[in-house]
Every structure is written in structure tokens, then in C-alpha cells.
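Quick one: structure for this chain?
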Amino acid sequence: MAYTWIAPKRFAQGGWLALLAALLSAPVCADVPVHHEIRVMLEPEAGRLQVEDRVTLPAGGPVRFALHGGLRAVSTTPGVTVGYACETRAGDDAALDYYSVTLPAGSRTFTLKYAGTMGRAPEQERGETRTFETTTGVISREGVFLAGATHWYPQFGEDALTFALDVEAPQGWEAVSQGARTTHAVDGAATRSRWESPEPQNEIYLIAARFSEYTREAGKVQAQVFLREPDEALAKRYLDATARYLELYDRLIGAYPYRKFALVENFWQTGYGMPSFTLLGSQVIRLPFIVDSSYPHEILHNWWGNGVYVDYESGNWSEGLTSYLADHLVQESRGNGAEHRRAALQKYADFVSANQDFPLTEFRSRHSAVTEAVGYGKVTMLFHMLRGELGDAVFTRALREFYRDNLFRRASFADVAKSFSQAAGRNLGAEFEQWTRRPGAPELRVNQVKAHAGREGYRLEAVLEQVQPGPAYRLSVPLAVTIEGQQQAYQVRVPMDARRVELSLPVAGRPLRVDVDPEFDLFRRVSRDEMPPALSQAFGADKVLLLLPSAAPDAMRDQYRRMAAGWRGQPGSEVEIRWDDGLERLPTGRAIWLLGWENRFRGELAGELAAMNSALTGQGVRIAGREFARAGHAAAFTARHPNDPAATLSWAAADNAAALPGLARKLPHYSRYSYAVFVGDEPSNVAKGVWPVVRSPLSVPVQQEDGSLVEASRGGLAPRPALGSR
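Got it. Here's what it folds into:
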């Protein structure tokens, strides 16, 4: 399945407007938005639209605007002169026309008329680990997608605008935009609707298609679903989820800033989040997990990114905060918060090398696994660390104050720091400085862990070190100490602002084991031994060898060759493709993919898999105790390279050629897992999971006074309620 991930939210959050603002020399004062009263008639069969736009400008400054090159504008307002200025190319669409406007003295309102054809069909693009489709705009018989990047309305370089949009579409079509629908009428020839957005916006969207509409009230908000085919059960699932998540975030952050939220089904596979609606592809919305994963993420963006806007020049904080309060919160409420954080740290370790890293102030949007690991994962962990240091009550108050003070304004990391400092009652500028302006991450080591008995009980001594290049970070390091005879571990946070700290902690019993950051509460570069082998380590490796099965049938050989060639296109990796009969032994110093049941090196995995209660034979696979026959299944898993523990050895295969294109396309989406099994030609996932971690260098036995080490399981950790659940 090809689809768009959230990186193309540049449409939703004004990236192209930033470009336009730079091109136009005289932007309008942002305190009073430009207002558009737009009347549109859509002609999808002809790929055409007709527009009349009554523009009201704030006072002051010359008037210039840009418009799609296929839409020549004239003014029907007496006394107004519209002059053609120049033509240039911007973005991915047609040439833009630039205009100057001369208005009568004291007048700031004028009307423009224009018409024409525009837009192009979605095209496939390849990201670092996935394929997606994108377009700056299209008008076709399948549907209409127009955004600011399409330049379908005059753009004045303003920081904000307000609008009312009257749309006439063919019979059976429905139009959707931001804000609230205030009128809706259907007659024998057309559907007419009006959308009003008094809230300041970055751009204007116009979506239209033959939709079946479903609506319900969710408190003071109208929940809507627009589907391309009738499906009452699917609509109800999303309407119920809309009401549930609106209530959650209203309670946690503050009142939802719009009058409606709509799920709109798109005619190509997208994951776009716009103010007051989301545009998701038909395959995407039918994935069973989307309603409680990507969907709350899109709803929450109406608070962060489409409510409080992002000052992109100083870094995008919105994606990480949204991920923390949506993706992480959903997992935390299911008891999987630590696993979710570990996966984020693992992605950072697997995909972000030192020469690829960058400070958060330089993050704009996701366009690769590297930018995702930094811009989403690191910011998620930043907010998690703030919560751990401040406590849930202060953290929640800071969120609410940040939202209240910056709604419909552009905000930066400095504004986030200001709100959190005010809520905490102390200056958090140094904490924000180290996480937002410095690339990289701390690396922790623990050693010299000893127990000492005294008159007043035991003391635990240890040396905690930061071993990353550069100066020390200021950290609050969680420790869990397992004590003899006690089911619950003793938990404490240790302040650390030096590269080396000597600990001496009184404990209520004989300490047996110490775990440093056992629940992955710190943003840091985790070591290989802390993480289970995962497919991300193969997809994110700098050097990769893909070994093809020379003994496979011709049809399979051809598909494996195609599979390897597709993965070879990953940017940032040195990828070599060879046939397995050309090697005597597996090399070291690189990640290796073994493709095919017939691969002659398949047996190299036997020892690593046996330790995980798993096996690979000619008849099928046993993974974590479950049996899967070779016939009808495709599978992939990864393990440590038996002769190079720093590298991974991965295997992937299907039993028929028809399943291999789908397997090649889908596996990158399962990169957080150690293994995944699929069935059928599509193929569909039926099992996935993560190998256990056998020994972490941050989980160490305590040396007793007689020099002995006692092997002990970690004591229980205190329960941690999900944010907002108290």
C-alpha cells in the first residue's frame, strides 16, 4: 500500500505560505487578517473552477498578490486597477502570476474574478522507508483537492487570513473546508454549501467528491464523516472516536478551537491533518488500528499546529508534542508507555548517526526516518522528561497555559519554555537550551556498583557516567534498586550535571541489582545490548548487504531481485546486492539481509533463533513458540550477526512470487519489530513482536562485600497512571 505519512502537513500548517511570504516583498500586517469572501463553482469533469473573491485587506502598505498561473485575475470593483507584475515558478505546480493592485483612497475592499483549469494527479514519491503519493492540487472526476500550495485563491503573503467559502458543486457532490458549514442545500442540478472560518488560518482548503455524509453532536462540536461509499458501521466507529478524543483533549488542554471535526475519505492514500478535519486515504481509514493511533493524532493537531501555530523558523515543536499526547498517551493508557519510549529511542539509535543529527530548532517536517526520529521522537521525549521532572499537575497546567496564551498565534520553542517556566515557578531555559539547540544525546554507563553494610543498614555505591562526546547534560536519572526480600524495587531520581557522579545511597536492605533508567524515561542514545534486535537496525544501517537466493526458481529470483533493488534506493545507506553462491562466508561490519527460503546462509540464524524459542526450517518457521507453515506465509525477522554482535542478520521470504512485492512494501512499516509474519498474496500481517532483552549494560548485579554477585530479577516498579487519568 502506498500512502502519505504526516510529513506533507506542510499543506496543513503553512510551509508553502512561509515560502510565499519570503517571495512577496510587502507582507500585510499580521495583527488584522486578510478576509476572503469566496464564491466557487466547481466543474470536476472539465478540471475547471470559476471563482469570485471579495477581499478585505488591513490598512497600510502596497497591495500585491500571487495566483496560480492558469487563473488570470481581473477586478470588477470600480476604481480598482489590477496590474500583471511578473511570472515565475514556485513549488511543484504551474507557474505563478504576480499582481499589483491600486485601490481608491481609503478603500481596502475589492473583488477579483478568475477561472481556469488547474492541478495534476497525485504522483508517487519515495521516502527513506516508504512510498507515498502527493500533489499540490487536483480537480478531476475522482475528486477535488485544493490547498494553499495550489495557489487557487489570491495570496498576499499574510501571516493569517479569515474566510467564508460558498461552493457550488455538481449534483451528488459535497464540498468540505475548514470551519463550520453554515448553509447546505441540494437541488436537482447542484449542491451548495457555505463554510465559514472566523478563526485566523494559514491557508484555505477545498475538498470535494461524491460523499456519503454522517453527522452527530459531540458536546458543542459537530462530528462529521464523509465517505466515498456508504458505510454506516465505519462512520459510527469514527464518530464515536471523535467524541471520545475531543472530550479527552478538552479536559486535558482546553476547549477545542473549532466548531466541527470531520473525517474525510480521500481518493488517494493520504494522512493529512487540516484545521477542523483530516483527509485520510480509503485504505488508511479501514486499517483497524488507525482509529486509536493516527486518528487521535490528527484530532489533537487542532490544538497543536492547527490551533497554536508553529513558528517554523525556530523549529517545529508541534509534531513531537502531538505524538506525546496522542500516540504515546494511547500506549501509556494500555500499559505500554515504556515500550513505546524504548521504540522511539531505538529508532533514534538505528537511524540517526552523529553526522546526520541536528538540533530541534532546525526541524521543520518529517521527510525521512532521520527527521522522524529527531523531530518526533526527541521532542516526544523532551515533553516526557518535563512531565517527569515537574509532575503531572504542573505539566498539565503548563500545557493549558501554553494553549490559552498562544491560540491562533505562531509559537516557538521559546514560547513553550516560557509557559512551562511560569507553571513550574522557575526558569527552565537551560533545560530547553540543551535539548533544542544541541544535537546529539547523552550516553549513560554505570560501574563500580557495590553494597556496604553498616550500623544503620546498607549503602549502595556506584559510579554513573555520561560518555557521549561534548559536555555533560543536566539530567534527572531514574534508578531502580532491587532489595533482598522485597517485591518492589526502591526507586529514586538522581540529579546529574557532570560527566561522572559517584553515588552513595542509603537503602532499606541488602541491594542485589541496579537498573538505570529502567522505563526509558530519558532521551539518550541507547546501546545495542539494551535493545532487542529490530528490523530498523537493518533498514537504518549505514552499510547493508542484500544476499539473493541463487537456488530459488526463476520467478522467485526475479522478484527477490526487484525487492532488493527497491530497498537499495534508500537514501543514506551504502547498499550492495549479491547472489549467495558468490560468497564462502558472511562478511562482518555491515547489516545483512538473507532473502529467500533457499538462501544457503539461512542456517547461520539457527543459534540466535534458538535462544528466542524460535527456528527456521524448510517447512516453515517457529517464532516465539508459534508455528507458521511455509505454504501461504511470508515472514521476516532479525537477530544479532553471530560473528559481529554490533551488526544484524535479517531474513525475509515468501512462498510465492505474488506476495513478494507486498512484503517489500510493507516491511519498512514494521521496522520497530523483531519479527513479522504475513499471509496471502497481499500479504496481511498475522503476527509481529519483539525479542526479549537478555542483558542490558544498565541493569547490573551489585557486588557484595565478599566480592560475590547475586543474580536477581528486577523488583517491581511503581504503577504509573496515564496522563489525565487521575
